[in-house]
Design a protein that fits this description.
Blueprint (H helix, E strand, L loop, with lengths): L2 E5 L2 H7 L4 E6 L18 H17 L1 E12 L3 H10 L3 E9 L15 E8 L11 E2 L15 E2 L3 E2 L31 H11 L5 E4 L6 H8 L3 E6 L2 H12 L20 H5 L2 H7 L8 E4 L6 E4 L2
Parallel strand pairs: 1-10, 1-11, 2-3, 2-9, 4-8, 9-10
Antiparallel strand pairs: 3-5, 4-5, 6-7, 11-12
Helix pairs in contact: 1-2, 2-3, 4-5
Bound molecules: S-adenosylmethionine (SAM).
């Protein structure tokens, strides 16, 4: 399935495209004064939320009726995310708690932080797609009997490991030759897998305005969703191109398939297992287009 990558400001891409989206993963810089090469992460708070509203509204305008957005942020900004989405036309569905597996961040005068939030909203009250996924996490010590049919996914996601520094995150983070992570905010494939499986079907178009390392693109294309990403930093564009053309075992979505084996219509949502098995090697090289910049013409590469 084709991927498209736009190098530049996502708002420029959104102004120009007439592409209808079915699902968007919105993981912007959090305005925490982090060191981004091509972005000022220390904006005035009002200016930052005005920017987020502009992005949310542009995506809303290009989203199909019933299409979904998943907006990730720090827990302390939950109210601002919900307000921004509602003010720009979205209908609130869930406040998802993504509970971290690493230790909580200690605080002197309040409880230590142990989660991040993802607000799930749709264009119109009724989602066009919501696949009720079933998982089968290990039993708690208080649970006596194994489940015969797994359990449905709730709004607390505590089974997806974040990509931290050090050994804990395993081999999934993309690393520089020095061993350092190439991008400190790389999202786990398992997170995008859950979002994409929940809110899209094969053939849908998925958009990521802040593509970073391209997790949405690499996950979406394996699930036969058409995946479009925008990224402002040319260094990250290189990472994404490399990730899409040199398929890494750690990006393989199949390693999570058994986690969802109790989902009723899994073959329909994910694609028949045998077909996918055949398709994975074809990801190398994946077909994608790189839009160098708004002004320049499309450049089709790595076909
Ligand atoms: C939090 S990271 C996203 C990480 C991503 N989810 C991943 O899995 O790698 C945000 C990204 O947005 C990019 N960015 C910042 N401003 C942008 C803009 N106006 N348009 C497009 N990308 C932008 C940054 O360079 C950064 O890579």
């Amino acid at each position: 399935m084709k991927c498209e990558l736009f190098q530049g400001n996502c708002l420029d891409y959104l102004k120009d495209t007439s592409e209808p989206f079915h699902l968007t993963f919105l993981d912007p810089p959090f305005n925490q004064n982090k060191d981004y090469r091509k972005h000022n992460d220390d904006m005035d708070n009002d200016e930052y939320w005005k920017w987020m509203a502009e992005v949310s509204q542009s995506i809303f305008e290009r989203t199909e009726c019933g299409g979904a957005i998943y907006f990730m942020q720090r827990e302390k900004n939950a109210h601002l995310v919900i307000r921004t989405l509602i003010d720009t036309g979205w209908s609130f569905q869930n406040l998802i708690i993504w509970k971290k597996k690493a230790s909580a961040v200690p605080e002197a005068k309040r409880f230590g932080k142990h989660y991040q939030i993802i607000v799930y909203a749709t264009k119109g009250k009724v989602p066009r797609v919501f696949n009720k996924l079933r998982i089968n996490p290990p039993l708690l010590v208080t649970e006596k009997y194994s489940r015969s049919n797994g359990m449905f996914v709730t709004d607390v996601w505590d089974d997806i490991r974040e990509l931290t520094s050090g050994y804990y995150a395993g081999e999934e983070p993309i690393r520089l030759e020095t061993g350092e992570r190439a991008h400190k905010q790389q999202s786990p494939v398992a997170l995008l897998l859950r979002i994409i499986l929940s809110s899209s079907v094969i053939g849908d178009t998925i958009f990521d305005p802040f593509a970073g390392t391209g997790t949405t693109l690499v996950t979406g294309s394996q699930l036969r969703r058409r995946s479009i990403g925008a990224e402002i930093d040319p260094e990250n564009i290189k990472i994404i191109r490399n990730r899409l053309t040199t398929f890494r075992k750690n990006d393989d979505v199949l390693r999570f398939r058994k986690d969802y084996s109790f989902t009723e219509n899994l073959d329909q949502i994910w694609g028949d297992k045998s077909v996918i098995m055949d398709e994975v090697p074809q990801l190398n090289p994946v077909q994608y287009m790189l839009f160098e910049d708004r002004a320049s013409s499309y450049q089709e590469s790595e076909e």
